[in-house]
Amino acid sequence: MSRPPSRRTMRRPLARRIDDFLRDWSLPRQLAGQPHRSDAARSTLSEGLRPRLEQADTVSTTICPYCAVGCAQLSYVKDGRLIHIEGDPRSPINQGTLCPKGAATFSLVNNPQRLSRVKWRAPYSDRWEEKPLDWAMERIAQLVKRTRDETFVHKLPNGTTVNHTMAIGSLGGATLDNEENYLIKKVFSAGLGLVWVENQARV
């Protein structure tokens, strides 16, 4: 018949755990005078830690889509899927920082409710239909052309030449650069005769 373990034997595992904890914990080593930037700060846990982004197979640069500041971002991708977004420290604009909206770009991209296909609802219909992108672009072009032709004004009643339409407007995105905005203004104002040309960055 075996004897029950003595109190001394039962205390051994606890003492060993405490001893291992104190030996592995970095604070006692730092209090003993070891520099905190060297081995004193290491532990079993920290030795096993790995950079969370080392699994990314592609790192690309992009611009935050939310406002007119134009903060640069680094996008980490693995197997074609975004796994993390952070500020680009090389940017003179944000220098690696992001506001809460910019930091939430990750959820914007990976949100399961994000629409990734063209949705169209026919007039008086009660349901949405999926359409090809080419079909949508062609329909937009046709509607713009038809609306312009139906509402285009060459001259005012007093004889002043205006060559414009008041029935179509343009609202540009905040991430458009100067060159893109220049082209939009030329195409919409000089080409189509739009009067209402605005940009999100100014609203």
TrEMBL record:
SMART domains (alphabetical): Molybdop_Fe4S4 (SM00926)
Record's protein name: Dehydrogenase
Subcellular location: Cell envelope
Keyword Metal-binding: yes
Molecular-function GO term, any one: oxidoreductase activity
Source organism per UniProt: Dankookia rubra
Cellular component annotations (GO), alphabetically ordered: cell envelope
Similarity comment: Belongs to the prokaryotic molybdopterin-containing oxidoreductase family.
GO biological process per UniProt: anaerobic respiration
Domain 4Fe-4S Mo/W bis-MGD-type positions: 57-113
The entry's keywords: 4Fe-4S, Iron, Iron-sulfur, Metal-binding, Oxidoreductase
Cofactor: [4Fe-4S] cluster
